[in-house]
Amino acid sequence: MKKQWRSLVLMCMAWLALAAPASAIPVVATGTSYTLYLEGLQSGNAAAGIFLFDGRPEQIERGNGFVFVTETETVIDATSSRIIITLTGNTDLFPAEDDVALLGIGTFGDGLDLLFPVRLIDARISFLQPGGTLVDTTGNLASQATQRDPWDGQFPNEFELVGVEGIGGRNVQVIAFEFLVSTQPAEVPEPGILLLGGTGLLAFVAARRRKAGAKRR
Questions:
Q1: Total number of domains in the chain
Q2: CB 25 within 8 A of CB 183
Q3: 11, 132, 175, 189: which could join 193 in a potential S-S bond, CB 3.0 to 4.6 Å?
Q4: What letter does residue 32 receive in the DSSP assignment?
Q5: Is residue 1 in some structural domain?
Q6: Is residue 121 classed exposed, middle or buried when 0-12, 13-18 and 19+ CB atoms within 10 A define those classes?
Q7: Burial of 148 by CB count in 10 Å (0-12 exposed, 13-18 middle, 19+ buried)?
Q8: Domain annotation covers residue 15
């Protein structure tokens, strides 16, 4: 009888484990490399580089100027994290009046190296002037990522770029990518399934008791 109850307890613990939240993050492997691409549709000045995700500023030349790239990741809670990649230039990054910003993370190279599967919940790009004055910010662009559940660390993918209009000639010198990710939830059984499972276990134990009582008679 003790063995039966021990089996029952172990099965209940297994169900509870399925319902437990995922482990805490961060999710990006520190010190790993990724590629970044930047260009103006009208003004040109394409720039592509390989960077390390380590929070240290790295410089890349673009036209007659330069762009610094830095990264941060902030753990929000046990299941979500915010990744920010910031580009800072010393001149207007999109000087043409009708310029369209063309951007990509992992395009023509490698995406962010993720330690375990996550879902891309929200992806936004903000454009700012020197001193932090916000020029514009996009809505949620997560749907533009070709693979986002689980996310492959690329935005939008290996071969394409995200285009944002209305940015030209507004003295944009800072671009911030912001990604909100969440650990993939475990497949938790529906409450009805859990109830049926518990009822089945109780019926099993009751049947074993009746069988044992019949043998004693």
A1: 1
A2: yes
A3: 189
A4: -
A5: no
A6: middle
A7: buried
A8: no
DSSP 8-state assignment for residue 27: -
Adjacent-strand bridge partners of 61 = 66
Q: Is 164 domain-assigned?
A: yes
pLDDT single digits (tens) 12-41:
444 444 443 445 678 999 999 999 999 999
Distance CA(87)–CA(66), nearest Å, equals 10
In tens, the pLDDT along 94-136 reads: 999 999 999 999 999 999 999 999 999 999 999 999 999 999 9
Beta strand segments in the chain, E: 33-40, 44-52, 58-62, 65-75, 80-89, 101-105, 118-128, 134-137, 162-164, 174-183
* Helix axes of 191-216 and 2-19: crossing angle, nearest 10 degrees: 180
SS3 199: helix
- 3-state secondary structure at position 208: helix
Examine residue 148 and state whether it is found in any structural domain, yes or no.
yes
User: For 138-177, what is each residue's pLDDT tens digit?
Assistant: 999 999 999 999 999 999 999 999 999 999 999 999 999 9
